[in-house]
């Protein structure tokens, strides 16, 4: 893929009113999701579920790309069409998660570093042949007593930059995902400081390793209060502090930013995204979404592992996709939830 094609792919990922659906859950994560609806996580059950996500009629109106898991990119629809081909036929770009998970960082209790660089060059070549146009690598930054350390932030930034360089070499757009977790009792201001330091370090490292920013997409957390914090910041404060954090750290050359939901409810993730776009219409980059659970959860519960529920499950998914598409334009309202 030429530089021009990489740039076109990156821009298409954050096309106006469109976002990314993450369906790249690892085996342990998808098992947890299936446990919640009391079905066994077998290969066929996973294929059936992802089939309904991928073949959802009308999804291409709101979704520019889907992030697949290694198993999923090799599977096919019920009529035998390979999943990547089924996506491309709809005008949706296939993506692929390429990291192998966050592991304990030596000498730093409570902190993680993401692994998966070994053999990545060859894996990317294969994924490109299977149809992948972009990839994703997630780094995990934990807030706690005395953490995160700069060692953790720098180790993850270095891995993200090495991954991004390999992707661009292979003709695949890298989505870099440094996620500051929202699981602790920290205030929104602590989240702001940690997110700011993390993003600054990541972009300094990308520059130092000659990653082309114009061919890169950022996936990041919103600046929000920790789940266990007694005082939860309101929607507008989250919007204001998230945008301020981005303006202080992200180069204007970046094609776009997509947010992860990070454990927020489906409706709250949409409301936060909408407030940002409504309040700040003239940012240097589009703000969009790359949600997993915040798009899938209503769909998963409606499906419940039953074939007869597929149409209703797909309708639930399409509703969330449409709401978030409107949030990218600052045009979402809470009334849309009651109308569903």
Write the layout of secondary structure elements.
Blueprint: H1 3-13, E1 19-22, H2 27-35, H3 43-54, E2 63-68, H4 70-73, H5 83-90, E3 93-97, E4 102-104, E5 112-114, H6 120-130, E6 134-141, H7 150-170, E7 173-180, H8 188-208, E8 217-220, H9 235-249, E9 257-259, H10 266-279, E10 287-291, H11 293-303, H12 310-328, H13 335-339
Parallel strand pairs: 1-2, 1-10, 2-3, 3-6, 6-7, 7-8, 8-9, 9-10
Antiparallel strand pairs: 4-5
User: In the CATH scheme, what's the topology name?
Assistant: TIM Barrel
Tally of alpha and pi helices: 13
Query: What's the structural domain tally?
Result: 1
CATH C-level: Alpha Beta
CATH architecture: Alpha-Beta Barrel
Largest sheet: 8 strands, parallel, barrel
Query: For the terminal residues, how far apart are their CA atoms?
Result: 41 Å
Radius of gyration: 19 Å
Number of strands: 10
What does this 3D model show about the protein?
There is one protein chain. The chain is of the alpha/beta class and 340 residues long. The protein has a single domain, classed as TIM Barrel (Alpha-Beta Barrel). It contains 13 helices and 10 strands. It has helices at residues 3-13, 27-35, 43-54, 70-73, 83-90, 120-130, 150-170, 188-208, 235-249, 266-279, 293-303, 310-328, 335-339, and strands at residues 19-22, 63-68, 93-97, 102-104, 112-114, 134-141, 173-180, 217-220, 257-259, 287-291. It has an 8-stranded parallel beta barrel with strand order 1-2-3-6-7-8-9-10, surrounded by 7 helices. Helix 9 (235-249) crosses helix 10. The chain is globular. The chain starts with a helix and ends with a helix. 49% of the residues are buried. The mean pLDDT is 96.
């Amino acid at each position: 893929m030429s530089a021009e094609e990489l740039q076109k792919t990156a821009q298409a990922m954050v096309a106006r009113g469109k976002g990314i659906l993450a369906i790249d859950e690892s085996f342990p994560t998808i098992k947890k999701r299936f446990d919640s609806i009391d079905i066994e996580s077998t290969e066929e059950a996973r294929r059936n579920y992802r089939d309904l996500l991928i073949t959802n009629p009308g999804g291409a109106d709101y979704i520019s790309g889907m992030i697949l898991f290694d198993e999923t990119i090799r599977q096919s629809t019920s009529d035998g069409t390979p999943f990547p081909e089924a996506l491309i036929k709809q005008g949706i770009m296939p993506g692929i998660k390429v990291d192998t998970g966050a592991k304990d960082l030596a000498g730093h209790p409570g902190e993680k570093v993401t692994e998966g660089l070994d053999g990545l060059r060859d894996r990317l070549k294969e994924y490109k042949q299977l149809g992948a146009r972009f990839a994703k690598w997630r780094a995990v930054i934990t807030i706690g007593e005395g953490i995160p350390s700069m060692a953790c932030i720098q180790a993850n930034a270095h891995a993200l930059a090495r991954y991004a360089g390999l992707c661009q070499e292979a003709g695949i757009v890298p989505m870099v995902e440094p996620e500051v977790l929202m699981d602790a009792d920290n205030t929104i201001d602590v989240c702001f400081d940690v997110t700011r330091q993390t993003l600054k370090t990541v972009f300094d490292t990308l520059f130092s390793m000659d990653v082309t920013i114009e061919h890169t997409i950022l996936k990041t957390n919103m600046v929000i209060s920790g789940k266990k914090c007694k005082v939860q910041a309101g929607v507008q404060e989250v919007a204001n502090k998230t945008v301020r954090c981005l303006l202080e750290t992200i180069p204007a050359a970046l094609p776009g930013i997509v947010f992860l939901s990070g454990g927020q409810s489906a409706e709250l993730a949409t409301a936060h995204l909408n407030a940002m776009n409504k309040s700040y219409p003239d940012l240097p980059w589009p703000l969009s979404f790359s949600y997993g659970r915040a798009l899938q959860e209503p769909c998963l519960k409606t499906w419940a592992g039953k074939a007869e529920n597929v149409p209703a499950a797909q309708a639930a998914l399409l509703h969330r996709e449409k709401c978030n598409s409107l949030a990218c334009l600052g045009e979402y309202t809470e009334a849309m939830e009651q109308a569903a």
